[in-house]
Write a structure and sequence with these properties.
The structure is a homodimer of 380-residue chains. Chain A is of the alpha/beta class and 380 residues long. Chain A folds into 2 domains: 30-40 and 294-379, Aspartate Aminotransferase, domain 1; 46-290, Type I PLP-dependent aspartate aminotransferase-like (Major domain) (Aspartate Aminotransferase, domain 2, 3-Layer(aba) Sandwich). Chain A is built from 11 helices and 11 strands. At the A-B interface, helix 1, helix 3, helix 4 and helix 9 of A face helix 1, helix 3, helix 4 and helix 9 of B.
């Protein structure tokens, strides 16, 4: 049924303001080498769905009285990721989140409910939102040193756990750190647990960016449900690309069922963290999955990693210190001048910065950046 | 700079699936009498911004290295609401959230940080997400009985607080309950605090729907920063109308500054709960505010309340038990058959259901519903 909408009165100032904002954003989107947002998308065929108030409120695997939703599509998205991450669909639970932070918060919430006496361990290279979430959840936590490449320091982890062996271990593993793209080694972490006879543990993986890279590389490290992990969060607006922040969180269904009982007891049937949830973002993710296909994603990601390698070689050519972790599209470089950082929107931390190569990354812009860097290298 | 995008290969099945989904959603959107989502919107002039990956990450009042954002617009939205709610802008802090739940979670998080030893009180007519949030935050809480009209039972509140006077009081007030549109009386609540000499308290208002109604009615009850409240959450996809869930949370800036210190100490400059935040939804809210203007909203909301009164009169005519709270567009009715509940997407709770009149509500559909109800009334 068509809803009649009164046309807003003509407002030239408003239109001018929108035009100006659009021009500014277009300009800023072209100088965009430091953030992992894939801009190679075109969701125009979905715009007509913005006439609705789509709302996927509640558990995507449950029922809903609110019919203007895309929950069937959301389940297809979840199923795609479950299969990608070696979690058989009947054993999977999850939902499309408003972004990586919500996914990590859900995973750590589930961990805390299962292990109220647990301590959270995470490396100092974790995204700052992990500490923010620990604070939100009132979760006792210990920050572990990192190795120079950004991985968790396994010795510090073992030493820290060994003096708190009476507490269950909640480990938040980085599957691609924000600054260095480092992947915590789940095999070594498991060996640590075995040496200390830790049986009560929960592993959540923050795989914001690399969760959509590793399924498409040859010989990936252990990072998904093939290992004894319990939950994982992946961003939707990063490697997939979306105009709105979104993500996917997946967990083992049996664990969610375990805490569901206590939630239902108090009359809440909703196991997601948000209430009203966007029905548009699942549509976006599904469209991206459908139009690329698994093979399309493989090609796209292989190309990204080849380009990363080529850019790294060029950096070495011009003599600017640069390196990367295996399977990562993040190139860590020595921090350039503030002017370059600002102009190219580089993320920085202390004396390092990083470039991130994405499917849309315009090579002529990279060349322009490299040229500016080359000039800066000469003046050092 | 234009980003080149490879056109996805033509996929007829995909297009057919989208067409079918669109048709289903259009049909469901027409039978939509039980949820408070204003569908009278047209944001087509904003669709072109969906080519960008807009991200308002971090505090909207702070700076950001990520330039593809609409933070300046977001501040205008916040300023509009601050003025509407009698909070001088220099004393205001807030952000555009992913929905009502995030706003309520922020408010209660702030309360818990300020009063770690506090107890949360809320009525049994509160939205289920309040209890979910209390669980998330590990916040000690006591559920208070409600009066038949949906307001908190002030006697039960006083009795409950009086036996826990050593704890600060965190009160989550309903400014329009979900099922009955009831407004907790802040004046009576304050008197309770005075009688019990409670000086350490925090009042958060869940004003999801009515927060955008009461500023536009004559002689509204006390509900905003004119009273000693500390924070308030209002939904954006409800009375304003939006294709994506969103909302606004506002708090007194001095309180946020107080907890910011402890957050900055651990190296987190981000005082919002999410990390990456949508830059599109602030644009939507700003566009709605700009095209309507305050006077436009007043007219729209006055008309909604007049229509509500007219529908209530028609219900009484056909002899179906129905009533409403003052200033509310929610009509509480005796629960009809499951068939009607499903067909008209009514929200139900026990033996009641409700209709919600919104700016878009198509009167011919309401008449159709009333006719079906009339027939049901005769068979009782």
């Amino acid at each position: 049924m068509a809803i009649s909408v009164k046309a807003p009165h003509r407002d030239d100032t408003l239109e001018q303001q929108l035009d100006q904002l659009h021009a500014e954003l277009e300009e800023a989107s072209g100088r965009f080498l430091g953030y992992p947002c894939n801009l190679a998308f075109d969701y125009e065929p979905l715009y007509r769905f913005l006439r609705f108030c789509l709302n996927n409120i509640g558990d995507p695997l449950g029922g809903s009285n609110f019919q203007v939703n895309t929950r069937a599509i959301e389940r297809k998205v979840l199923q795609f990721f479950a299969e990608l991450l070696h979690l058989p669909w009947p054993q999977a639970w999850g939902y499309v989140t408003s972004g990586g932070t919500e996914g990590n918060t859900y995973g750590l919430f589930l961990a805390r409910e299962l292990h109220p006496n647990g301590i959270l361990y995470f490396s100092q290279d974790s995204h700052y939102s992990i500490l923010k979430t620990a604070k939100l959840l009132n979760l006792r936590n210990i920050m572990i040193r990192s190795l120079p490449n950004g991985e968790i320091d396994y010795q510090d982890l073992e030493a820290s756990i060994s003096v708190k062996r009476e507490h269950p271990v909640i480990l938040c593993a980085n599957i691609g750190t924000t600054m260095k793209g480092a992947i915590d080694d789940l095999g070594r972490i498991q060996q640590t647990f075995e040496r200390l006879a830790i049986h009560d543990f929960y592993i959540h993986c923050d795989a914001a960016l690399s969760g959509m890279i590793l399924p498409f590389v040859d010989n990936p490290p252990l990072f998904d449900f093939g290992a004894p992990i319990n939950s994982i969060a992946i961003s939707g607006h990063k490697m997939i690309g979306a105009p709105l922040p979104c993500g996917v969180v997946l967990a083992r269904r049996a664990l969610v069922k375990q805490i569901e009982r206590s939630i239902e007891y108090v009359g809440i049937m909703d196991t997601t963290l948000s209430g009203s949830r966007s029905g548009f973002t699942p549509l976006v993710l599904w469209y991206a999955i459908r139009t690329h296909g698994r093979q399309g994603w493989r090609r796209s990601i292989q190309k990204v990693l080849q380009t990363t390698e080529a850019v790294l070689a060029r950096l070495q050519e011009i003599g600017w210190p640069a390196w990367r972790n295996p399977h990562s599209n993040t190139i860590v470089i020595r921090r350039p001048s503030d002017e370059l950082v600002r102009r190219w929107q580089l993320a920085v931390k202390g004396d390092i910065a990083h470039l991130i190569v994405m499917p849309h990354t315009p090579m002529e812009r990279v060349e322009q950046f490299l040229e500016e860097l080359r000039r800066e290298a000469q003046t050092l």
